[in-house]
Please model this.
Amino acid sequence: MKYLKNKKWFTILELMIGMTIFSMIMIVILDSVANITIARTKSMNRVTLLEELYYFSESLATKIKDGGTLDYEEYWNRQIVGTNVGSGHYLTPTGDGNYGAGGSTGSTNYGSWLYLCRSGDISVWWVRMWTGGCLTANLNDSWNPQAGKMQRYGEYMLQYMDYNGNADTDLGDEDGNGNIIGDEDDRDIGDGPEVLSGATPELYLYDPIQKERTFFRWNYAPDIGNPGLCNIATWSGCLGNIQILKLKGYDIGLGHSGITSDTGAFDGKIDTWICRPEWKCTWPSIPGYPGNLPSWTGSEWMNLFPDYINVKQVQFQIFPRKDPWRAWAAPDNLTPTAWFVSPFIQPYVRLTLSLGLSWDQRKLIKNDDPTIWLTTTISLWSSDESN
Model:
C-alpha cells in the first residue's frame, strides 16, 4: 500500500498495455465508422438507383404508350428478314418498309414493289391460299421469291388478301385487263400469319394519327470507364442502354422521290418512312421533305438512359401476334392456359428490365453492383388504321 501511495507515474509496461488497449478500441471505432460510411454510401446509391429506375422506367413506359399500337408491318418485315442478334439487337437491316426484295439499304436501289397473294387454280392442284402468308412464289404475282427479303410497308396487310378468291384458272384477273386488283374475286380472308413471338430485344410501334413509327432496341457496348473488354457472359466491362428511333410516314411513291410520276405517289397510302429531323439519319434527304431516309447506321439511334445507368437486360413480349382488326376470321382461343394467343385482345407489351450502375459509379461503392429487375405490362392502342 505504501508503494502504491508513493507511485507517481505509470510503468513502461502499463503504458504499453494501455496504449495497446486504446489503439484496439480506436481501430474498432474507426473501422465501424468506415463501415457505416460505406454502408451509407451503398444505401444512398441503392436509393439513387431506385429513384433512377422509377424515373426512367416511367419515362420508358410513357414513351411506349405514346408510341401508339403494335407495328405489325415492321414485325412481319423483321420476321422475314431474319433475327440474328449482335450487341443486344437485331443486325440484319429491314429497310424500315422503304425497300423490297433485291433492294440495298443506304442506296437508291429500293428493290421490288409490293407483291400480292392469290390462290392458284384448284382444278389443277390444291394451291388455295391459307393463313400463313404468301412468301412462296406460286402464291403471289411476283417472280421474285420473298423468303428472307425486305418487305415493303403495307405487305403484312396484303397477307390477309386473296386476289384469286374463287381459285379459278384466271389466277385473279377476272376482267382480263392484266391487273388482279379490284376484281370481283378479291377476298379478304380475315386471317393471316403470326408475327414474332417470345421475348425480343426490340419493340416496334405505330401511331396511326400522327403517321409515325417509334422503334426501341437494346444495345450494349464496352464501358469506357472499365479497362477490360466487354464480356456479355459475365457482364464485365459492358454498358447497356435502350435506344430509340422515330420515323415519319409519307405518301410520296415507292421510289421515295416525291415526284407525281413515281409509282404509288399520292395515292393515299404511306410508302415512305423518313427519320424525324432531330434524328441523325445520314442518307441524303428528299427534296421538299424534312429529315433523311434511315440508312441503318448506329448513329441514327438515340440513347434513352444516361451513361451512369447500365441496362443489363431488356425484353419485349407483344400480344396479340396477329393484327386484331384484320384477323376477324381467325380462330379464337380463350382457354385458361392459352388465352394470350387469341387475336381478339387489346394489344399490349410485357416489359422486363434489369438496371445496374456503370463502372465509374460502382467504384464509388467499392465495386458493389446493385441490380434491380422490373417487369410490367403496358396496354397499347387498338386501331384499325393501317395507312
Remarks:
- The chain has five helices and 13 strands.
